[in-house]
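[Discussion] Sanity-checking designs against the backbone

I'm trying to build intuition for which residues belong where. Below is a structure token string of 278 positions. I'd appreciate it if someone posts a full sequence so I can compare it with mine line by line.
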């Protein structure tokens, strides 16, 4: 009462688009239209591939390959992120098992949406995925963003403690763009911190970003965490990241996300031959 609302045609078309995505996605989850791509994380010194990040793709029958940026938000808004996330967990664990049976022990990281992270039965869901695939929890890393943690600090602490107790490795994704402080993150049993691409982009020898990144790496190392730089695209960034003792790198320079069979080929080949990194 006492208010005026204006109808906006754009809003109707956004709603229509989201409704369409939601319907198509529901079908996609049940009909194997989703696929996991894998992007390697490389030790910055030994150049050995330490693990792979699972990134979801949608092979849409009409529009072709679709990226998560196109549909994750709609999946979160509609609640479809839960069945989607569950599919991702099962598919990733199955892949770890397959690689293991082929003689390659390769840890895989799985991205958890904030909506999934708040599910009361999250721990049971992950446990069920690993036990169905007969995979050990130490080979599964769970990536959570700072903002997901900050939504409910106390509940997050409890969930992360439980996951950690079960033996999963916990990773903070996209660090540096949220509002949490390193001081604050000290309370959580975290294993890995991934410095966001926006931050890495500006890193160069001698720059001010490098000084901040150096402080982050030093502090995380005292807490026993592994630090990964995301979005590494240039050799100059590797030189700078080596200088500050960053542990691992991920980015197009090392390799883009690839279908499983192509990603694992990177492990079998000499990384230098593939990437040209020395
Ligand atoms: P993220 O977890 O931070 O993943 C990194 C994103 O950066 C990926 O985009 C990757 O392709 C891209 N990237 C990697 N290296 C480079 C680089 O050198 N340069 C540039 N410009 N980009 C690079 P992608 O696959 O489109 O995924 C985007 C986001 O969607 C992910 O960000 C993650 O938050 C989300 N996502 C992906 N898969 C899943 C999933 O299975 N579940 C959930 N909940 N979220 C997912
Ligand atoms: Mg990630
Ligand atoms: Mg990230």
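Best answer:
Here's mine. Compare freely.
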């Amino acid at each position: 009462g006492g208010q005026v609302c204006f109808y906006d045609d754009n809003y109707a078309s956004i709603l229509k688009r989201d409704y369409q995505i939601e319907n198509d996605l529901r079908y996609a989850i049940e009909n194997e239209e989703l696929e996991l791509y894998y992007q390697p994380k490389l030790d910055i010194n030994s150049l050995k591939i330490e693990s792979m990040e699972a990134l979801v793709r949608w092979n849409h029958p009409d529009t072709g390959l679709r990226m998560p940026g196109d549909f994750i938000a709609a999946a979160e808004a509609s609640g479809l992120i839960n069945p989607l996330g569950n599919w991702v967990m099962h598919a990733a664990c199955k892949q770890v098992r397959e690689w293991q049976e082929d003689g390659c022990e390769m840890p895989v990281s799985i991205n958890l949406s904030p909506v999934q992270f708040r599910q009361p039965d999250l721990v049971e869901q992950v446990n069920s995925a690993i036990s169905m695939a007969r995979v050990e929890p130490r080979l599964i890393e769970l990536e959570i963003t700072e903002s997901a943690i900050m939504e409910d600090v106390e509940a997050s602490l409890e969930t992360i403690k439980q996951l950690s107790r079960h033996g999963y490795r916990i990773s903070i994704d996209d660090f540096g763009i949220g509002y949490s402080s390193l001081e604050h993150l000290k309370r959580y049993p975290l294993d890995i911190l991934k410095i966001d691409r926006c931050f890495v982009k500006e890193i160069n020898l001698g720059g001010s970003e490098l000084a901040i990144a150096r402080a982050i790496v030093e502090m995380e190392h005292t807490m026993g965490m592994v630090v990964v730089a995301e979005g590494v695209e240039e050799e100059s960034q590797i030189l700078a990241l080596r200088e500050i003792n960053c542990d691992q790198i991920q980015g197009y320079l090392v390799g883009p996300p690839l279908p499983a069979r192509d990603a694992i080929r990177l492990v079998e080949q000499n990384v230098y031959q593939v990437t040209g990194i020395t």
